[in-house]
Design a protein that fits this description.
Strand content of chain A: 35-45%
Oligomer: heterodimer
Radius of gyration of chain A: 36 Å
Shape of chain B: elongated
Number of strands of chain A: 10
CATH topology of the domain at 81-201 in chain A: Jelly Rolls
Strand order of the largest sheet of chain A: 3-2-4-9-6-7
Order of helices and strands of chain B: HEEEEEHEEEHEEE
Number of strands of chain B: 11
Helix content of chain A: 10-25%
Helix content of chain B: 10-25%
Largest interface: A-B, 27 and 61 residues
Number of helices of chain B: 3
Number of domains of chain B: 1
Strand content of chain B: 35-45%
Order of helices and strands of chain A: HEEEEEHHEEHEEE
Largest sheet of chain B: 6 strands, antiparallel
Structural class of chain B: mainly beta
Distance between the termini of chain B: 79 Å
CATH architecture of the domain at 81-201 in chain A: Sandwich
CATH class of the domain at 81-201 in chain A: Mainly Beta
């Protein structure tokens, strides 16, 4: 009986040693955690302070601008208006600013007697309102982008203004005038159009 | 009494002579010293590197053996591409079975800009950067691919959902001195648009080398 017990004890000891050996095999572990991917941002904003004295950036064209769904009535040869819009790249990725004139629709309105000689009256205001676009961004200073009629702008598609890097701000000068030499052909004509301001990743 | 003393003396002398005779028998001795037991070693050394099409957007944190390495990409945009390479060497003297466990964490929308909010149906939820990042992964041991026939090529967001063995065909034997190279080549879809703006996610790899069971 004593021999049997000794044998069992020996088996138990050997089993424990073998078990301990398995648990203690060599091993090495290395980590590479925290590999991070983060996208940048690109956000075109407008200065909502007409004076330009205060930083008050917003995500839409400010309603003080003439180009903000504004109706300009009773225009005549020699009239001239302008907007200066402050824009900013509020993102972290450099961008290219652009402007696009679309959906230009000319309507003849009434055709008063002085205009009758130009019949047919198809609405000629768009062809005779001259837009000047100037883009000014540091460090390049003011740059003439375009000086062209509204009808011609409608065919230009997206017009590049210039670089607008991350965090940078710039001014867009947009003036429109009706030349003195136009004459009666635009009487009571009206034109509607949309302006799309863009900022694309550089 | 004198006789007794003489007898004892004689016995002592004879005994001494006999003893001298025993000391002079043939003999030989051999030694086996310096029998040495030395344990082998099993050690992984990982060197991590990273690259980006815009070099200003990548930072590599390569640390000494035993410390965590990482690669951080920031300010990413549509059209960007890059890579992470982990060079994993068994610098020990024993072969081991190598395996890699991958997880993804911190998959969030991050900064929500106005352009992103216009197109993101679930702002504040998981980010979309990993959903729009294409990943091609290669895994080689001593220059031979572990894949047959093709490597992983799918969206990054699915990377962590693949079982480890299906993703990289590991574990495999990594002999002493052998090198396992894992490379992630990634690119952001140039047509993805604003939905990824400010998004972020993190990849984590744990590389283990286990002694081959006797």
């Amino acid at each position: 009986m004593k021999k049997i017990l000794m044998s069992l004890f020996t088996i138990a000891i050997v089993g424990a040693l073998i078990g301990g050996g398995v648990m203690a095999l060599f091993s090495d572990t290395e980590t590479s955690t925290g590999n991070t991917f983060t996208a940048g941002t690109l956000d075109l904003q407008f200065d909502n302070d007409p004076s330009g004295d205060v930083d008050n950036w917003m995500d839409s064209v400010p309603n003080y601008a003439l180009l903000y769904s504004e109706e300009i009535n009773n225009m005549k040869p020699g009239d001239w208006e302008f907007d200066i819009l402050g824009i900013k790249n509020a993102g972290t990725v450099d961008g290219i600013a652009s402007i696009e004139f679309t959906n230009v629709v000319n309507l003849p309105g009434t055709t008063p007697e002085p205009e009758v000689i130009f019949n047919p009256d198809n609405g000629e205001l768009g062809a005779n309102v001259l837009f000047t676009i100037i883009y000014s961004a540091d460090p390049n200073g003011p740059k003439l982008v375009d000086k062209i009629s509204l009808d011609a702008l409608d065919t230009q598609g997206k017009i590049t203004l210039g670089a607008l890097n991350a965090g940078q701000w710039a001014n867009i000068w947009i003036s429109f005038e009706i030349l003195d030499s136009v004459g009666n052909v635009i009487m009571d004509d009206n034109v509607t159009f949309d302006v799309v301001f863009g900022l694309d990743q550089a | 009494m004198k006789k007794i003393l003489m007898s004892l003396f004689t016995i002592a002398i004879v005994g001494a002579l006999i003893g001298g005779g025993v000391m002079a028998v043939f003999t030989d001795t051999e030694t086996s010293t310096g029998n040495t037991f030395s344990a082998g070693t099993l050690e992984l050394v990982v060197v991590t590197s990273g690259a980006c099409s815009d070099v200003g957007k990548v930072t590599v944190y390569e640390n000494p053996d035993g410390f965590n390495d990482s690669v951080v990409f920031t300010n990413l945009a549509p059209g960007d591409s890059g890579s992470i390479t982990w060079t994993i060497t068994n610098t020990g003297t024993l072969p081991g079975m190598v395996m890699i466990h991958r997880t993804m964490s911190n998959d969030v929308d991050g900064v929500d800009t106005e352009p992103e909010l216009l197109v993101d149906p679930s702002p504040g939820a998981a980010g979309e950067l990993d959903d729009n990042m294409w990943l091609i992964s290669t895994v080689t041991i001593d220059g031979t691919t572990t894949f047959s026939p093709t490597p992983y090529a799918n969206w990054m967001s699915l990377e962590a959902t693949y079982p480890d063995d299906q993703f990289d065909n590991l574990p495999k034997l990594l002999p002493a001195g052998s090198v396992l190279v894992v490379t992630y080549n990634w690119s952001i879809d140039s047509g993805v648009g604003n939905i990824i703006q400010g998004d972020t996610f993190t990849l984590n790899l744990e590389m283990t080398l286990d002694q081959v069971t006797p």
